[in-house]
Predict the 3D structure of the following.
Amino acid sequence: MAIHLRAHAFAANPLRGVSASTTAVSPSAAAEALLSLLDPSSPAAAADAASPHPPHLSKILPFRRGRPLASSPDPPAAAVAPAAPAWRLAWLPPSRVPGVAPDAFVFLGAHAEGDGKEAAAYWAVDVSNSEGPRVDGGSGDGDGSAFVDLRTLMVATDWSDKDAMGDLAIAGHARALLEWHNTAKFCGACGAKAVPTEAGRRKQCSNESCKKRIYPRVDPVVIMLVIDKENDRALLSRQSRFVPRMWSCLAGFIEPGESLEEAVRRETWEETGIEVGQIIYHSSQPWPVGPNTMPCQLMVGFFAYAKSLEIHVDKQELEDAQWHSREDIKKALTFAEYEKAQRTNALKVNQMCKGAEKGQSITEDLKVGSGEPVPMFVPGPFAIAHHLISAWAFEGVPKLPSSFSNL
């Protein structure tokens, strides 16, 4: 069966977009309110004290080494067993994040807390090098929170839980911005220090003769399911870094001066020797869980019809690439197996928030009812690759107008 999401994981951030803008707090107003809370002796604090209107509510999401602070309470006793514990982001008041410079905070957006209530401003901050007290449950205060790797949270998220998916999108956006701030410390034009502006949404060169504006980095990637229409097969590949038995779509970064379609054809040819003709767009997904040097990739998904079928794998790029029948791919898309992986990781997050870091790995839990490992599987519903593969296996592929069919 196909799994349908409201939006891809890391998309549909509730603090961004048109719906959020109706209750938005401007970055400058949010920054002034935050400063007054961080430094009671500041002019902003004095102005707030004299104002009949209180400052905007500020909520902080701390990160440590790229990991957001999360909490995971046990399911209520009345929950239907075996209910997996849910997780949520652990937002803190500014008083719980002491000793951090004001310009280290990155504005994420604003959102009303409820009908008729004032919007709250949301911030992220990297506390990896903070000398202040610990802000997670590991300090022994029993608050049931811990810094958890974003990939673990991604797999642990119940994709039918709208609030959890929203928290995942917020965490992804925050991590991307913080990692960009950690790498974009100097101007690429003159080498001077780059300083945050607009509440951390961009940077600017501090050199008065340069003042170059620096914006958050996004790395576009094409990801494609190559289809053999005549023999009803799809091309899947393995990289050496993949866990055993996992197969996925081909993917590659877009080069300067190249269109998306050209990138699909070039990457497919370079990695597998397959020539591609017709290309059909599917969807796109922000992907903030790559390496720190690439704080946010944008995965742009396509179906691509093969014009040649003989595979010649580039072993420097791939471990293997093979054609797989529709029936074999349907077997790999077993809904229950992804539920097992989600539950396993949800329990792992819960254990971490209790102070333990024990739990089964994802692949150990991907087994069929007999106890034997599944012969192959593809990435779960959190990845655009899953939805490209699932859409072809269960729903087919829409057709392009004839004028585009043989490009």
